[in-house]
Amino acid sequence: MNLLLATSGQFPTYFVIVYVVGFIAAVTIGSIAWYNSKRPAGWENAQKPDYIPDVESEEPADSNS
Question: What's the pTM value of the predicted model, to 2 decimals?
Answer without folding.
Answer: 0.47
